[in-house]
Amino acid sequence: MSERPLLEVRGLKRYFVQKRGWLVRRRRVVRAVDGVDLSVRSGEVLGLVGESGCGKTTLGRCVLRLIEPTAGEIIFDGRGLLTLSPSELREVRREMQIVFQDPISSLDPRFTVEESVVEPLRTHTDMGRAERRERALALLEEVGLGAQHLSRYPHELSGGQCQRVALARALILHPRLLVLDEPTSALDVSVQAQIIHLLVTLRETYNLTYLFITHDLGVVRYISDRIAVMYLGKIVEVGPTREVFTAPAHPYTQALLASVPIPEPKARRWDFVLEGAVPSPANPPPGCRFHTRCPSAREICREQEPRLHQIAPDHWSACHLEGGG
C-alpha cells in the first residue's frame, strides 16, 4: 500500500441554506460538513462512521463534486478538483465512482442491466456496441451475475442483484477510488455478507481504494484499514481500525463501541450510554460539539473547540481530555 494519499480533503465545508416563513423569509444555515480534514491512501479502505445526520453522505458526495462544497480543498492524486474546468473534471470522473445506499433506486427503471452497465462506456469512450457488451458481460460475471441478466430490468432483480449491477457499473471504467455510501444497509444480512466478501475480492483484483461510509461498526471493522469517526459535521477521531476498536480515544467513539453487542461477557467494554439527542447542525453548540452529551465534559469543552491532535502513530483525536487544544 502506497503512503501517498490518493485523496486529500482540507477544511471542507458544505452549508445548506434553508428559507423559512411565508410573509417574513428567514434564512437558516445547516452546517452539514463543517471543516473536515481527511486523507485516503492509495489502496486502502477508510471507513467513515457516525450517527445518521452527522454529514457522512454529504462528505462523500462533496468528494466527487456531486454536491459543490461551500469552502475547502479536494485533492485527488495531486490535482485540486475544485479548480478543474468541466472538461478536466469529466476526465477525472473516470477514476472516481460511487455506489449508493439504495441499490434499486440508484438504477434507471427504464434501462436494462446491460444499458445501465455500459452507460459509462458510451459517455467516456468510443467503444463499439459489441465491445461494450463484451466488457459488461465479463464484469457482470465477476460480480456474480451472468448473460441471463443482461436483458432484465431493475424491478426483475433482488436487492442484492441490483447492488451487484451497481458495482459492475461503477467498475466498468476501472476507477481508482470508490465511494461506497452504505452499500449494504438496505440488504438482508445474508446478502450483506455476500456483498462485503465481493467488495474485498474486487479490491484485491483491481487494487481499488475505498471510502466506505457506514453506521455498521461490525462491517467497518471487518473491511477497513483505518476508521474516521464523524460527529455533527466534524471528524473527531481517525486511526487504524485495530487501535480505534481496542483503545478509542474520543468519548464519542467509546459511546459508539459501547452500543455494539459483544457475545463475550468478559470482553472489555466502555460503560457509556449516550443520552440526549444530537444537536441541530443549524445551531451547533459552542466549544466541543459533543460536550452536550459527554459525561466527562469540562468547562474548557464548553468554551473551546478541540483540534485533531496525534495521540499515537497514525492515531488522531479531537478531545481536550486527551490533551488536545
Characterization of the model:
By secondary structure, the chain is α/β, with parallel strands linked by helices. It has a domain at 250-325. Helices cover 30% and strands 24% of the residues. The chain contains ten helices and twelve strands. It has helices at 56-63, 86-92, 113-124, 129-142, 159-171, 189-206, 217-223, 241-246, 251-258, 299-303; strands at residues 5-20, 26-41, 45-49, 71-76, 79-80, 96-99, 177-181, 209-213, 226-231, 234-240, 309-312, 315-317. The strands form two sheets. The protein has an eight-stranded mixed β-sheet, sandwiched between helices. A four-stranded antiparallel β-sheet has the order 2-1-4-5. A hairpin with a 2-residue loop joins strand 11 (309-312) and strand 12. Helix 3 crosses helix 4 (129-142), helix 3 (113-124) packs parallel to helix 5 and helix 4 crosses helix 5 (159-171).
Annotate the secondary structure layout.
Layout: E1 5-20, E2 26-41, E3 45-49, H1 56-63, E4 71-76, E5 79-80, H2 86-92, E6 96-99, H3 113-124, H4 129-142, H5 159-171, E7 177-181, H6 189-206, E8 209-213, H7 217-223, E9 226-231, E10 234-240, H8 241-246, H9 251-258, H10 299-303, E11 309-312, E12 315-317
Parallel strand pairs: 3-8, 3-9, 6-7, 7-8
Antiparallel strand pairs: 1-2, 1-4, 4-5, 9-10, 10-12, 11-12
Helix pairs in contact: 3-4, 3-5, 4-5
